[in-house]
Amino acid sequence: MEQIKISINGEVRHIAANTNIAQLLVEIGNAEQGVALAVNQAIIARSEWPAHIINHGDEISLFQAIAGG
Amino acid sequence: MSFAEQLKALNWDDVRMSIYSKTATDVERALSKSRLTTEDFKALISPAAEPYLEQMAQKSMRLTQQRFGKTMQFYIPLYLSNMCSNICTYCGFSMGNKIRRTTLDMEQLEAELKAIKKMGFDHILLVTGESERKVGMAYFRQAFPLIRQYFSHITIEVQPLEQDEYQELIELGLDAVLVYQETYNPVTYAEHHLKGKKSDFWYRLDTADRLGRAGVHKIGIGSLIGLEEWRTDCFFVASHLAYLEKQYWQTKYTISFPRLRPCEGGFQPKSVMTDKQLVQLICAYRLFNPEVELSLSTRESEHFRNHVLPLGITTMSAGSSTQPGGYAEQAEKALEQFEISDDRSPASVANMVKDLGYEVVWKDWDPSLSH
Amino acid sequence: MLTIGDKTFKSRLFTGTGKFPNQQSMVDALAASGSELVTMALKRVDMQNRDDDILAPLIANGMNLLPNTSGARTAKEAVFAAQLAREALQTNWVKLEIHPDPKYLLPDPIETLAAAEELAREGFIVLPYVHADPVLCKRLEQVGCAAVMPLGAPIGSNKGIRTLDFLEIIIEQANVPVVVDAGIGSPSHAALAMEMGADAVLVNTAIAVAGNPVAMSQAFAQAVAAGRQAYEAGLAGQEQQAVASSPLTAFLEGA
């Protein structure tokens, strides 16, 4: 299976080509609730996660809600 | 919620009863607060507040001086026309009245402006009947540039106009617009406004909103005291003011309290307001809203004006004529809209004001740097 | 009942999730407070060190979520943060918080107004955190904010209602609900804000760092309710009587 190189919150990672976002979240062990995601500074709507394929070199930013007034 | 909706949601008699059932405790509470609600205003204009009049006057004077200093703004009304297509039972200009109708042409207008200027005024109030065809935007477009040559401040009290018309007049130098609802009771209103565009209560009520949206600097409201039970009507004036201040927060406001006087029609007021009650009302407005301008015209007598001025008034007219023109030459009295009670000259009134320890302000620099 | 945007609240005590000693303490204290609206921040997931999911217990307790844009220093960053929060929490409610000054965390009025306008246009329910500036609050109302959140004192200072005179003006002039946020250090501060006519208060630090956060949050809930009840009951004023000089109304005798 072809591998591509991406970064998630600054960390370099290798994943299989043609992975979509929903699959990626499963792979890194992150629940979907309370999470938002941007690919190369563009926010990807939750409804798009199963459809959006990640490309080589993509910089992924993963955000979650945390405690904070 | 628009003010019209607020008005429709209230029952006139419930409001009246609510005012009359205010107690001394309600009045004392209102007097001890610095931010009053409309319920507090009800207490202050209720019969229960009568024994507290001196206290109200003291506080009213103090608040007025704090906000306005010891100053009195002078203005003069110039009636441009007494043509009118409305029938209003209480007014000398009512369409059915047989008086000589006239509109100043530009030459006559200029003569009047010159005469008024000689008296020292810089703030002018232009008054007309309501005759859209004869004295409408075309007339105003002509008159304004001429008037602006002489006066830095133009207020108008004419027929309600559309928002874009107000916007146009603002470009031509309009500063303030007075539009009195006469009475906030639609049923009573209909009894007195029998014909013409003025018979549309809700259109008139909406005028203040059109003015707010147009961005006019100052809006004047009020009721004609005597058409209805005055306490209830004045409560609605206060409510209208509160609503407008929240909606159009960049606008200034002024309130007037014309008491019905005899005129050509021979009209009898539904309720008669005594001098004491007028003082109570003026102080109540001031306590309710320390920032609003309060205006006292020459409908009131010399004696009354002399004593009431320091209690809350911030602007007054003097040397007024309520017929078209009337300054450049002495015309017959038959044309007046209402009878003047204080007919002292402006110089004489100015001296009285100075004797009271107040400065007469002929020209107010405050409103706008754009003029 | 308090209505903001499309929601109605029984409790006028809003709360924040920050600064608690641990997650359980936070969940317990917020549950005890009766609060129905709680703020939280958004940050990048630390891949090595995943944070606990704070949302599940809050949602289970029936709380509405109000993500804030804390961390944003410009309007652009705040808009981005709000869009992320909308995706993350599946809510269009956002507390707009832009403080470029890391020392006092005072809100930037210019960036806040710009961001508020943009977010309101994008359909967010915007609650902006700002200084107690009456004109700014009217401008925010004009661009479509669902409420305004003027501060009582700097964040975390617990100094109480330092901006009292200005809050009074804001409350008087506002056509939208006024939520006093930041600086409330004790239940009496909260009660004072409510007595003045504020529609709600937001309390975070004072509860989170209290010796007993659960008890403190209950005290706050009572204070907010008491203050509101007093306001609705019609408070007596505190003005001094005017010093009597010569009588001003004697001229009316016989009138």
From TrEMBL, chain A:
Pfam families, A to Z: ThiS
Q: Which Gene3D superfamilies match?
A: 3.10.20.30
Q: Which SUPFAM superfamilies match?
A: MoaD/ThiS
Fetch the NCBIfam families from UniProt: thiS
> PANTHER family in the record, alphabetically?
SULFUR CARRIER PROTEIN THIS (PTHR34472:SF1)
Instruction: Indicate what this protein is called per its UniProt record.
Output: Sulfur carrier protein ThiS
Organism encoding this protein:
Motilimonas pumila
Q: Which gene encodes it?
A: thiS
From TrEMBL, chain B:
Names of required cofactors: [4Fe-4S] cluster
- Protein keywords: 4Fe-4S, Iron, Iron-sulfur, Metal-binding, S-adenosyl-L-methionine
| CDD domains (UniProt xref) | Radical_SAM
Q: Which SUPFAM superfamilies match?
A: Radical SAM enzymes
Q: Name one GO biological process term.
A: thiamine biosynthetic process
| Pfam families with a match to the protein in the record | BATS (PF06968), Radical_SAM (PF04055)
List the GO molecular function terms.
Answer: 4 iron, 4 sulfur cluster binding; catalytic activity; iron ion binding
**Which SMART domains does the record cross-reference, listed alphabetically?**
BATS
- Specify the domain of life of the species encoding this protein: Bacteria
Radical SAM core domain residues:
70-305
The record, for PROSITE patterns, names: RADICAL_SAM
Q: Which NCBIfam families match?
A: thiH (TIGR02351)
Q: What is the protein name for this chain?
A: 2-iminoacetate synthase ThiH
Give the organism the record lists.
Motilimonas pumila
Automatic annotation (TrEMBL), chain C:
Q: Name one GO molecular function term.
A: thiazole synthase activity
Q: Which residues form the active site?
A: 95 (schiff-base intermediate with dxp)
- Give the record's subunit note: Homotetramer. Forms heterodimers with either ThiH or ThiS.
Under SUPFAM superfamilies, the record lists: ThiG-like (SSF110399)
Provide the Thiazole synthase ThiG domain boundaries.
3-247
Top enzyme class, one word, equals transferase
Recorded E.C. number(s)? 2.8.1.10
- CDD domains, per this entry? ThiG (cd04728)
Gene behind this chain?
thiG
The catalysed reaction is: [ThiS sulfur-carrier protein]-C-terminal-Gly-aminoethanethioate + 2-iminoacetate + 1-deoxy-D-xylulose 5-phosphate = [ThiS sulfur-carrier protein]-C-terminal Gly-Gly + 2-[(2R,5Z)-2-carboxy-4-methylthiazol-5(2H)-ylidene]ethyl phosphate + 2 H2O + H(+)
Q: Which biological processes are named by the entry's GO terms? A: thiamine diphosphate biosynthetic process
Q: Which Pfam families match?
A: ThiG (PF05690)
Annotated 1-deoxy-D-xylulose 5-phosphate binding sites:
156, 182-183, 204-205
Function, in words: Catalyzes the rearrangement of 1-deoxy-D-xylulose 5-phosphate (DXP) to produce the thiazole phosphate moiety of thiamine. Sulfur is provided by the thiocarboxylate moiety of the carrier protein ThiS. In vitro, sulfur can be provided by H(2)S.
Instruction: Mark the transmembrane ranges.
Output: none
Gene3D superfamilies assigned: Aldolase class I
The UniProt entry, under InterPro entries, shows: Aldolase_TIM (IPR013785), Thiazole_synthase_ThiG (IPR033983), ThiG (IPR008867)
The identity of this protein, by name, is Thiazole synthase
Give the pathway.
Cofactor biosynthesis; thiamine diphosphate biosynthesis
